[in-house]
Amino acid sequence: MNDVHMPTDWTKPKQQGDLLQIAKSILLEPSGLTESDLHDTFGVMYAHRLDDADVYFQHTRNESWSLEEGIVKSGSFSIDQGVGVRAIYGDKTAFAYSDEINLPALLKSAKATRVIGPSGGKQALARTTSTPVANTLYSGLNPLDSLGPTEKIALLEAIERRAKARDPRIIQVMASLAGEFDVVLVMRANGLLAADIRPLVRISVHVIAEQNGRRESGSAGGGARHDYGYFTSDLVNHWVDEAVDSALLNLESRPAPAGPMTVVMGPGWPGVLLHEAIGHGLEGDFNRKGSSAFAGRIGQRVAAKGVTVVDDGTLSGRRGSLNIDDEGTPTQCTTLIEDGILKGYIQDTLNARLMKMPQTGNGRRESFASLPMPRMTNTYMLAGKEDPQEIVASIKRGLYAVNFGGGQVDITSGKFVFSASEAYWVENGKIQYPVKGATIIGNGPESLKQVSMIGNDLKLDSGVGVCGKEGQSVPVGVGQPTLRIDGMTVGGTA
Q1: Could you give the CA distance from residue 433 to residue 452 in angstroms, rounded to a whole number?
Q2: Pure H helices in 93-212
Q3: Which of 241, 251, 358, 440 is 20 to 30 A distant from 118 in Cα terms?
Q4: At 264, phi and psi to the nearest 5?
């Protein structure tokens, strides 16, 4: 996991006690709320028979700056806060939220949600709180204050200057900078009280190149749970060069051949295919309902030998990492597939209880106004032993896909379609020319069985992943080593 992009001068992460103190001062104290009020809220809810309940407070500050044609075209700043109240009875859930944080709003939500269960609850509730032994993966600094407005604009202008200086064919540069400061506090009916302060920053670079009337684009960027100090000039320049190189390469690209062939996928971001085609199918809710292609298959071979896939929320500073999930459960590294055998699913509290399986710290939600559900954090395949160059050299006729754009997957069947944003045609082990318009078509469980070579070059993405599920978006990480997959279908334009 040696990744050049993660800082060595990490600001000292805060312990759970410190985080709780800060979260209370931001989320509870301004409206005079106390821990005792939260216990009383659960008392109101448990006048009905419930299996579980939680309250989730959140305060989020966002900003984004974007530059186009040498001008900062937009800058936005927003503050959002509120509380979500959830009651669970059996497999049924009732949920209410308020963007006002005060005792009347809390009690109103509590009364509204408790109706999910029959009246006459007699459960004794915890009046004391317990805090989990949470991870300490990032600092509690507010990244929005780590750079002044003038410096933020200067950073974007420097991106444009470098991109245009690289090659006269670069005719347009779009750059954006975004930061988020997220404070959450969650309390559960069993007395668990946990907090997290989550910084997040990101830079995106998009360039357009033109030659002989032909236009092509290239993109790059990245980020981390850090402040803006993460964006060193070397790192930013690396992304600018990556975007420019990609656009110039696409100017030389030819239409992609189509048909069944060997596909070699590069390391890092191509792991998005793994995330979509396999990861979603391993989420607990889909498997409990039997709608996943992997449902009921624990202990069975679902992939070739050597394929080990984990979901790991504990990688320091990573975009997909969390100290605790949105239900207060500490994140962990969960082995999903080990040497080709299906070992488990990722779970939140509800699905873990209903499936009688352990929680894995994967209960995530977009905001206080959304319900938590099983979601990935950083999902990646572990490295093998093969030399990446030898893997490419093993292709007789096929595709070497280095980078991917968007894609779609059908969870139930496992079928997926992905577009390759950077790919090369290979014959007799030699790269021939870049191709454009290649789509990788396959079936997640089947593709895993066709993995024939696994590189020793595991790499994680640069920190750009966003995962959508049921209308909710959360930041995630993906990764993989170089992979050879036999017999894949490529849709082309040739």
Answers
A1: 24
A2: 103-113, 149-166
A3: 358
A4: -105, 125
Q: Distance (Å, rounded) from C-alpha 286 to C-alpha 362?
A: 14
- Joined together, the tokens standing for residue 98 give 């308020």
Whether 405 has a pLDDT exceeding 90, the answer reads no
Alpha helices, H only, 252-348: 271-274, 284-288
> If pLDDT is split at 50, 70 and 90, which confidence band does 494 have?
low
Question: CB of 474 within 8 A of CB of 467?
Answer: yes
Average pLDDT, the chain: 92
* CB atoms inside a 10 Å sphere around CB 429: 13
Question: What whole-number distance in Å separates Cα of residue 423 and Cα of residue 431?
Answer: 10
H or E element, residue 211: strand 193-211
Calculate mean pLDDT across residues 55-65: 97
**How do residues 341-386 score in pLDDT, each as one tens digit?**
999 999 999 999 999 999 999 999 999 999 999 999 999 999 999 9
Look at strands 193-211 and 466-469 and give their pairing.
Answer: unpaired
Strands of 236-295, DSSP E: 254-255, 259-265
218: which strand partners?
A: 207
- The identity of residue 68, as a single letter, is E
- Tell me which residue of 21, 8, 388, 419 sits closest to 194, measured CA to CA: 21
Residues in CB range of 330: below 8 A, 6 or more apart: 132, 133, 134, 135, 323, 324, 361
CB atoms within 10 A of CB 215: 14
CA dihedral 398, 401, 407, 409 (to 10 degrees): 60
Closest by CA to 418, choosing from 393, 451, 441, 390, is 441
User: pLDDT tens, 198-248?
Assistant: 999 999 999 999 999 999 999 999 999 999 999 999 999 999 999 999 999
As a whole number of angstroms, the distance between CA 152 and CA 158 comes to 10
Beta bridge partners of 219: 206
Q: Given pLDDT bands bounded at 50, 70 and 90, which one contains residue 5?
A: very low
Alpha-carbon distance of 13 to 3, in angstroms, equals 20
Tokens (6 digits) for 201 = 């920053």
pLDDT at 39: 93
Element (H, E) at 236: helix 233-251
How far apart, in whole angstroms, are the C-alpha atoms of residue 187 and residue 236? 40
Whether this model's pTM surpasses 0.85: yes
CA count, 13 A, side-chain hemisphere, 206: 11
CA nearest neighbour of 257 among 395, 391, 399, 394: 399
> Out of 52-61, 114-123, 126-135, 309-318, which region has the weakest mean confidence (pLDDT)?
126-135
Which residues contact residue 213 at a Cβ distance below 8 angstroms, ignoring those fewer than 6 apart? none
| 211 vs 216: CA distance, rounded Å | 9
| Burial tier of 305 (Cβ tally within 10 Å: 0-12, 13-18, 19+) | exposed
